[in-house]
Amino acid sequence: MKRLTVSILLILLLGTLFTFTGAVLAEEYPDKTIQIVVPWGAGGGTDKWTRALSTVAIENYGQPWSVVNIPGSSGMVGWKEMLDRPADGYTIMSTGMSNIIAPIMDSSSAPYTPEEVRPVAIYNFQNPVLIALPDKEWSTWEGLKNYLTENPGRLTIGSALGVSIGTTSVLEQAGLEANLVIYDSTGEAITDLLGGHIDLAIPPPAVAAPLMESGDAVAVLNSGIRDIDLPKFEDVPSAADLGYTGFSTIRWMGMHPDTPDEIVQYANKAIGEMIESPSFQSMMKSMGEKPVWVPLEEVEEIYNHQAKELRRVLENIDL
Amino acid sequence: MGVFVGVTVGALPGLAISTGMALMLPLTYYMNTGPALALLIGVYKGATFGGSISAITFSTPGIPAAAATVYDGYKMMKRGEGRKALQMALYASVTGDTLSDIITIVLATTLAVVALKFGPTERFLVMFMAFILIGTLSGKNIFKGLISGSIGVLLALIGSDPVSLVPRLTFNLWWLRDGIPIIPMIIGLFAVSKMIEELFDIIERKRKNEEIEKQDLSIIKSLFSKASAKLTWKEYIGCWREMLIGTTVGSIAGMLPGVGSSGGAFLSYGVAKQFSPNKENIGEGALEGIAAAESGNNATMGPTLIPLLVFGIPGSVGAALIGSALTFQGATPSPRMFELHPTIIYSLFVLLIIANAVNLFVGNIMIRFYSRLGQLPKYILIPFIIMLAIIGTYVVSNNRYDVIIMLVIALLGFLLNLAKFPTAPLVIAFILTPLIERTFRIAIQTSYYDYRVMFDSGLSKALLGITIILVIGITKLKDKSKKITGDLEEE
Amino acid sequence: MGSKIFSNFKFTNKVISIILLSIFLILLIYTYNMDWSQKTARDGITAGFFPKAILILSMIFCIGMAVNTYSNEVPESLEEFDFKNLIYVVISLFICWGYFLLLLELGFFISSFLFLSLSIYFLGPGSWKVSLITTLIIIVFVYTFFSLIQVPSNIF
Do A213 and B332 touch (CB under 8 A)? Predict the structure, then answer.
C-alpha cells in the first residue's frame, strides 16, 4: 500500500516537472503536440474542417494536431476548457459563431464574454443564401420585397439560428417583416421548403448549390459579406449590391487571451501555410467549400466587428 | 471490419453511432469509394445492434435507441436467458434492417416524395402518437407511471426555451444551458442506479455477516466455456408479427428527419405492446418486446438514407456522415445523384445488404462472449460497469459536467426504483418531449399562429384522426385489462 | 417517544406522494418567482408555460396517487429499508466522483487500477489475488477496446 502511494506521488511530481520545463521552452514553440479543442460534436461542420486541416499539420505547423471534441452548452464548455488551460499556445480552439451567441443571450450566468479570447485565424467565411422554390412571386429579391411590402409578415423563412443572422439584418435594414422560424438544423428547414410547408430557407452555399443545379430551388439573396465563388451564384444579388450590410458566419481559431504575441503570430502564419497547402485545398474543393486566409491584424478586426454586429442584431430581433 | 468496430462502439455505453462514424470518417479520405462506404455503413449498422448488447447484458443501453430493449432484455438476462435475448436482438435487427433496406432500394424515389408531404404539423402528430402509445407502459399503478412520465418531461424541459432561447429551470447553472444530455441521463438512470442497488445488497449482506458466494479464478475461465440455451427457430418465427411491426414503423420513422432511430424503436415497441398477441408479457422479459424494439431501430437505418440520396438532405447524423464521405469521393448527394453517380448508388445499395450478413456473423461471435460476461460475480461486475459508465460518459464529449449530471440522475433513479416508480415512462417522456415541443412550436409558427391552418392538410387530418382513435382505443383497452386484473385480484 | 412514532411510520404510497407533492410545489413557487418564466417568445408562449403546466399536472397526479386504491400499500423494497443506509449510497456516489477526478489527474491506468482493485477487494471475498488479476484483465480489455476505435480523449 505504502509503496503505491509513494509511486503515485513520484508520478505526480514528474508530471509537474514536465509542465514547468514546457513553460521554460516557450521560445522553441512548438515542441509538442498541439491540442485543438472543437467545442462541437464529432461529425459537425467545424469538426470536419478542423480534422481536414489537422491532416496537414505536421508539415506546416511543425507539430501534429490532436483534435478533441468538447461539446456541451452551445459550445460554452469547450471555450471554458480553453480558458482553463495554460496560455502557452498548445491549446487552440477551433469554432464557429454559436458559442459567441450563447454568452450574449445568457450574459448573467455565462462563464466568459466573447471578448475573452485571442483570435488567431479565420479560415472560412460562410455566406448563407436565402433560397425559395422556383416560379414563386418571391423567387427574386425585387419580388420578395414587393410581396412583403404588400403582405407584411406573411412569408415564412426557416433557418438554423447562426446562418439566419445575415438575412434578418438585411430585412431589418430594408424595413421588411417576415415570419422567421428557427429550426434545429438546416436539413430540416430545406425538407420543409421542398415540401412546400415554408416559403424560404437559408442554407450555406455548399448545401444550396446542388439544389440550384437541379432546378429544385433558386437563390434570392446572398446575405453574406463576400462573393460566393461557385457556379450558378454569379447572378445572385449580395447584400452589398443592394446597399445593405450583410453578415457572414465565420469559422475561426482562438487562443487563451494571455498568449504571448510571438506564439500568436507564429500560429497565424503557420495556419496560413496549412490552408494554402495543395492537399488541403483539394480536399476542401471536393467538399464544395472555400478556405480563406486572413492576416492577423484583419483577423482581430473582423472578429471584433462580427461579435459587435451579432450583439446588435440579437438585441434588436425579438426572438 | 466496419461492422466489428461498429458493434464495439455500440456495445460501449456512451459512444453514440455518430461518434463512431465521425471517428472513422478521416480514415475514408484515403480510401476508395467501395471500402470507404463499407467501413461507414458497417459502423452505422453494427453500432445500432451493438447498443442492444450492453442494454441486455448490463441494462445499459449503448446507444439511446437501444433504451427500449432494456425492459425485456435485462429481465431475460437476469433469468439466465441472456444468450437467447441477445440472439433475438441480433436476428430481429438483421431482419428488420434487411427488409427495410429492400424497401429503400425499391422505393427510394417514391418514398422521398411521400416524406416531403410530412410538414411540421404532421411530424408533430407522429411524435404525439408515439407519446400516446407509450402512455400504456405505465404498469400497475397508473399514477406512478404518470408521475414518472412528468418527471421525464420536467427533466427534458431543463435548458433553453427553443424559441426565445431563454434558459429555463437551469437554476442559473451555465452548463445546464443545453439541458440534460441524453447519454449521461440514460447511463445514470439505467446502469449506475442499478449498480448502486446491487452494491447496496452486497453491503447489506456484509453487515449481516452473510456468506458471500465464494468464487475463484475459475469464473474467468467459464467466460470461454459453452454457453447457455440458444434461441430456437420456432421462437424466432414466433415473433414475426412484432418484427413486421418494427420494420414498417421503423421505416416510416427513418424517412422523417428528426424522428430517428430512438423514435423508431419506441414507436414500434409501443405499437407492438398494443397489438401483439403476447402484449401482457411485453415489458416483463418477452422475446416479442426485444423483437419489436430492435427491428424498429435497425429498420430506420436504410430509410434515413432516402432523403440524402434523393434530395441531398441528411435525415440523421449518421446519414449526414455518409453524405460527407460521399462528398469526399466526389459524389455530392444531390437530387441528380441517380443520374450522375449510378455506380456509387448501386454499390451503396449492395453494401447495405452485405453489411447485414456481416453483422449477423460478427454479432454471433460477440454474443457468445458478452452473454457470459453478464454472469460474472456481482463484486466484479459492479465496479467494472461503474468504471465503464464513468469513462463512457466522459469520453463522449470530454465534458466533466456530464459526469456530475450522470451521478445525480443515478441517485434519482435509485430513489425512484426504491419507491417502485417505473422508469420507462420517464425515459420515453425525456426523449420525446424536446422533439414534440420543437415540432409543435415550429408547426404553430409556420402556420402563422393559427391552429386551423395547422390541421389544414389532408394528411394531418388523417393523422389527427388516427391519434384520436388511438387515445379512445387505449382507454378502452385499459379498462378491459383493468377489469381482468381486477377480477384476478378478487379471486 | 419520538422514536416510537418513527418506528410506526410506514412509507406508504400516500406518504411518498405527499413528499413528491411538496417537492413539485417548491419547484412551482421557484418557477413563478424567476424572471425567465415571464419572458414571452415570439410565438406567444412564455418560457415558464410548459414547466408550470407540467408541474401542476404532476401535482394532480400526486393527489391521484394519494387517494387511489393502492394508497396504503408499502412498496416492498421500502418495507425493510433502513434509511441510515442512504448515507452509503451518497458515499458510493462520492467515491465514483473521486474516481473521476483521479481519472482526470492521473490518467486511465493508475486511477482505474486503484478504483477496481480496491473496490473488488472490499466488495468481494477479500482476496488480493482475485482482485488484482481481474483488475488487470479488465484494464487491458477496456484499453484495447477504446484504443481500437481511437477515442480522442485526454484520459488515455
Answer: no
Q: Is the peptide bond before A204 cis (omega within 30 degrees of 0)?
A: no
User: Going by CATH, does the domain composed of A129-222 fall within 3.65.10.10?
Assistant: no
Contacts of B447 in chain C (CB under 8 A): none
**Chain B residues within 8 A of A104 when measuring between CB atoms:** none
Does residue A271 contact residue A123 with C-beta atoms inside 8 Å? Answer: yes
Rounded to 5°, angle at Cα A73 from A69 and A77: 50
CB B399 within 8 A of CB A79: no
Interface test with C, best of B9, B24, B140, B143 (most C CBs within 10 A): B143
> What does the alpha-carbon distance between residue B335 and residue B27 come to, in Å, rounded to a whole number?
27
Angle CA(A137)–CA(A143)–CA(A146) in degrees, nearest 5? 110
B5-9, B278-282, C52-56: segment of lowest average pLDDT: B5-9
The answer to whether the beta carbons of residues B292 and B242 sit under 8 Å apart is: yes
% residues pLDDT > 70 (chain A): 90
Contact B101, B248 (CB under 8 A): no
Domain ranges of chain B: 2-211+222-490
Q: Architecture of A31-124+249-316 per CATH?
A: 3-Layer(aba) Sandwich (3.40)
pLDDT of residue B407: 92
The C-alpha cell 426504491 sits at B418
Give me the residue from C27, C77, C103 closest to B418, CB to CB. Answer: C77
Domain ranges of chain A: 31-124+249-316, 129-222
Q: Kindly list the domain boundaries of chain C, sorted by start residue.
A: 2-75, 86-148
Please name the helix (run of DSSP H) or strand (run of DSSP E) that holds residue A218, with its range, or none. Answer: strand A218-222
C41/A66 CB distance under 8 A:
no
User: What CA–CA distance (Å, rounded) separates A75 from A87?
Assistant: 20
Tell me if A31-124+249-316 shares its fold with A129-222.
Answer: yes
Extract the C-alpha cell encoding A238. 449580395
pLDDT digits (tens, 9 = 90+) for B12-44: 555 556 666 766 666 666 667 777 787 778 777
- Among all residues of chain C, which has the CA nearest to that of A41? C152
